[in-house]
Amino acid sequence: MEYNTTRSRMLMPEYGRNVQKMVEYLVTIDDRAKRLRNAEAIIELMGTLNPHLKQIEDYKHKLWDHLYQMTDFKLDVDAPYPAPTPEAVFKKPERLPYPQEDIPHRHLGKNLQGVLKMALEETDPEKRQSLTQLIGYYMKLAYTNWHKEPVHDDMIKSELAVLSKGLLQYETGGYRVHFDNRFKQRNNNSNNRNFKGGNQRNNSGGSGGSYGSNNYNKNRKFKNNNKNK
Question: What's the average model confidence in pLDDT over 113-118?
Answer without folding.
Answer: 85
